Amino acid sequence: MRLFSTTPLLHLLILSCLFSHVHPLCHPDESAALLELKDSFIIRQNASVDPLAYPKVASWSSKEKDDCCSWDGVECDEHNSHSLNLAHNDFNGSLIPYQLSHLPSLTYLDLSDSIFAGQIPLEISQLSNLSFLDLSQNQLELKRPDFSTFVRNLSKIKYLSLSYVDISSPVPSFLANFSSLTSLRLEHCGLYGEFPIDIFQLPNLQFLVLTKNTNLTGSFPEFHAECGFHGPLPSSLSRLSNLQLLELGRNAFSGTVDFNMFLNMKNLTIFGLSGNMLSVLIRENRTTISTNATLPKFKILSLGSCNLTTFPGFLRHQYGLTRLDLSNNSMHGKVPKWIWNTSIEILDIHDNFCTGFSIDVLPSMSLRYLDFSRNSFMGALPIPPPSTNYFDGSKNELSGEIS
């Protein structure tokens, strides 16, 4: 079990101990619980190739159990709240320790991407003060207890991520009562049934990720808009002004969508419509192509398979854009020169009718991935920057020598 890292891998922060006038002290029960956790870990000295890496828990000793605040990786303050972060460790398929329930003041628990396995213990659901819980990217399942039983007691939760946990159940409707919820991430969980429509109405919701749940069905509400769009993607979506991430890709949405309604969602930074049966209409005007500061500042934008015919002009001033997917459209002409004024790292425009780039040597210093295959590029092969590690220009009409 690896508890090491090139930057020490065990990031353990415990916030909350009883203060004295001299030094903050842990409660004895909290010290004992931490020592139980230490005893459940298998520590191998060769778990890291970094000679400077070390297990932080080596400093935890029963001789000092009345003052865990002095232990390496442990901090205390007067607010009586705990935070435990064991993300990005390698626990080699171990079970999540049930002893975590002995830390009832935990408000923050991150066990993501740490190769835990098996059933998530019921004891975790007894941590009713949790506002942050991330168990994603492991090999876990949530069957006994099931999803509904597990989350019912977590009414203070703000951030909940169970992505890639095998849940295989419907989404409980009472989540719509969790008014503090800002982020709900349930990617690839085997969810099925009807997604509770009232969850979309949560007042503080900013992130909702439900991708790769092929048996999950549902529809969007009208959000009490004054005039609604009578299609699968109502214009009243723009009322969700706090959303920063909206991923609707790879579903079965259809019809014509006015993209300008999404430009009214000022906080959007990650947005995806790729892989549906939509026709996206982008009405280019002075607002959408200007430097207007009220437009969203996209970082990731996916508009693949959206029946676009031209390169979206509103991207001209999206300087923070790092990933752009415009594949499987019907765009003609040359890719505009101004695209290289962005922070683009990934550009995917395969399966279009583009005839080339406006310049032969691509000036971007951040480009890592470029796919312009299956287009109508003519002439010399474009020269990518040295940063590029994926380059696909196949099935075009290129000619001449390879530089």
UniProtKB/TrEMBL annotation:
PROSITE patterns per UniProt: PROKAR_LIPOPROTEIN
Topology within the bilayer: Single-pass type I membrane protein
Endpoints of the signal sequence: 1-24
Taxonomic lineage of the native organism: Eukaryota, Viridiplantae, Streptophyta, Embryophyta, Tracheophyta
Organism domain of life: Eukaryota
Domain Leucine-rich repeat-containing N-terminal plant-type: 27-77
One Pfam family this sequence matches: LRRNT_2
Keywords: Glycoprotein, Leucine-rich repeat, Membrane, Receptor, Repeat, Signal, Transmembrane, Transmembrane helix
Subcellular location: Membrane
Chief location: membrane
Coiled coil: none
One GO CC term, this protein: membrane
The protein, known as: Leucine-rich repeat-containing N-terminal plant-type domain-containing protein
